[in-house]
Specification:
Blueprint lengths: L2 H17 L3 H18 L6 H21 L6 E5 L8 E4 H21 L1 H4 L3 H7 L5 H30 L11 H24 L17 H22 L19 H8 L3 H5 L5
Antiparallel strand pairs: 1-2
């Protein structure tokens, strides 16, 4: 999988899902992102990610339902004397929360290939030469969280073998302190390694990046066509916006705009599953 193709596809998904308020097109992007990840990474590797985005989406729906007391279709009402939650609870607020809740999972799944399918050096390869240092920083940061998690697991297991047992917040210092010291030491080693390899000097060596094959080019073309087609649909009024207030209505769906979104399914067909 070429990093530039993955970046083009992710960017197109994000553009569409962030510029439209119509849940139909957001669902199309969400379906494309989920299908692509399922076909490439597999559902097993997506388990924690799916749980996380489901919790975030559910919280977003609940927050809007509780805080937005607007709309004509009232499900029930809480006395206004109760601070924070008092007021009418409407179908329109629930629908708007559900529409907003689609945006976050779609955006997260659209960006997920960078962590699930690509290595840090692949991400650096996707950036232009002028952003080489930025790519190095991104690559190092992508390795930070997995390294800290692995260090925490190793230290906690070693401490348990020595008879340590969690006895409250203070007892966790016996695990946290070694993890922090190990992370600092690893950071120093990384900085020394980068300095030894001449990071930051004007003269830089280069490695041969991955070439864009026909599959990657087709993904890039389809992704750019999807974003451009949807932008044109919005400009011409085909992809109508959706707003549930004051009375809930079904979102209008235009086949031309939906066809543009369908191009985001191309990677699910062309990219092969890893692992």
């Amino acid at each position: 999988m070429n990093a530039k193709a993955a970046a083009a596809w992710s960017a197109s998904c994000l553009v569409i899902v962030l510029v439209t308020s119509n849940p139909a097109y957001k669902c199309a992007v969400l379906a494309a992102a989920f299908t692509t990840l399922a076909a490439t990474a597999g559902l097993g590797r997506m388990h924690r990610l799916l749980v996380g985005v489901a919790l975030i989406a559910g919280f977003d729906v609940l927050l809007n339902f509780v805080s937005a007391h607007l709309g004509q279709t009232v499900l029930f009402a809480v006395p206004d004397s109760i601070p924070g939650v008092g007021g009418p609870y409407t179908v329109e607020a629930l629908a708007f929360g559900a529409s907003s809740g689609i945006t976050i999972p779609a955006a997260i799944l659209a960006a997920a290939p960078f962590s699930l399918l690509l290595q840090p050096h692949d991400v650096m390869d996707a950036l232009p030469p002028v952003l080489a240092r930025t790519g190095t920083t991104i690559a190092a940061s992508m390795n930070l969280v997995p390294a800290v998690v692995a260090s925490f697991t190793e230290v906690s297991e070693a401490q348990r073998m020595r008879g340590w047992r969690p006895r409250g917040p203070r007892s966790w210092a016996e695990v946290v302190v070694p993890v922090v010291l190990t992370s600092v030491e690893s950071s120093i080693q990384l900085a020394e390694s980068m300095e030894a390899r001449g990071f930051g000097l004007p003269a830089r060596t280069h490695f041969r990046g991955a070439n864009l094959g026909p599959t990657s080019l087709l993904v890039i073309v389809a992704s750019l066509a999807a974003a451009a087609g949807f932008a044109i649909s919005q400009a011409l009024g085909w992809a109508e916006a959706w707003y549930p207030y004051p009375s809930l209505m079904w979102p209008a769906v235009d086949l031309r705009a939906l066809t543009g979104c369908s191009l985001l399914f191309v990677p699910a067909i062309l990219w092969r599953r890893r692992g």
